[in-house]
Amino acid sequence: MSQATRALAPTLVPNQTLVRQIAFVLGGAALTALAAQVSIPWAPVPFTLQTLAVTICGITLGARLGTISQFLYLVAGMCGLPVFANGAFGVSQVFGVTGGYLLAFVLAAGLLGWLADRGWDRKVVPASIAVLGGNFLIMLLGTTWLSRFTGWSSAWALGFVPFISGAVLKSCVVIAAMPLTWKLIGKDRA
């Protein structure tokens, strides 16, 4: 290889770390979009696997990448990709009845990632508290938003209470899956 070719080589090969980070962000957004399609109708908020995907992204990708993955998910839906529950899309979804849950995805992923960046993902009890807290943060913010449309008691009865057992179950699945997700993304958590 000539000296000129060696000098140009670093600019021709993308930074592998950057490529991996982009792949993780795209993968996190795609995982959330796929999880949204696993949906059981319930008015006004469907039962989906989105919060499972959000909490996995936050706790495994960290604050920066986890937050960006969920922000990208929202942007994709607002731009017309059918990524929300039941193939829904559009700005009206983000600012409609279930918009509080969607917006809370970004905050929950960021909070979980922040906690993971500080070691909360290294032991079962703190990780469980973090993931369950992330799920309940989504539920609380979503229910508060929903109350603008339905009133507080209806929002609580339809947008929070029915989701409690699912949040606990999804949190258990995320905790159990953490070692596998670390392996998949090459994250060492001794």
Description:
- The protein has 190 residues and is mainly α.
- It has a single domain (25-185), classed as Arp2/3 complex 21 kDa subunit ARPC3, CATH 1.10.1760.
- The chain is built from eight helices and two strands; from the N terminus they run ααββαααααα.
- The chain has helices at residues 3-12, 16-36, 50-78, 91-94, 99-117, 124-150, 152-159, 164-185; strands at residues 39-40, 47-48.
- Strands 1-2 form a two-stranded antiparallel sheet.
- The longest helix has 29 residues, at 50-78.
- The termini are far apart.
- The model has no long low-confidence stretch (mean pLDDT 92).
CATH topology: Arp2/3 complex 21 kDa subunit ARPC3
Overall CATH class: Mainly Alpha
Main sheet record = 2 strands, antiparallel
- Mean pLDDT equals 92
Query: Could you state the order of secondary-structure elements as H and E?
Result: HHEEHHHHHH
Q: What class do helices, strands and sheet pairing give?
A: mainly alpha
Counted beta strands: 2
Secondary structure: helix percent: over 70%
Molecular shape = globular
Low-confidence stretches: none
Give the count of helical stretches: 8
- Amino- and carboxy-terminal Cα gap: 41 Å
Count of distinct structural domains: 1
CATH architecture: Orthogonal Bundle
What amount of the residues lies in strands? under 5%
* Lateral strand order in the biggest sheet: 1-2
Radius of gyration over C-alpha positions, nearest whole angstrom: 18 Å
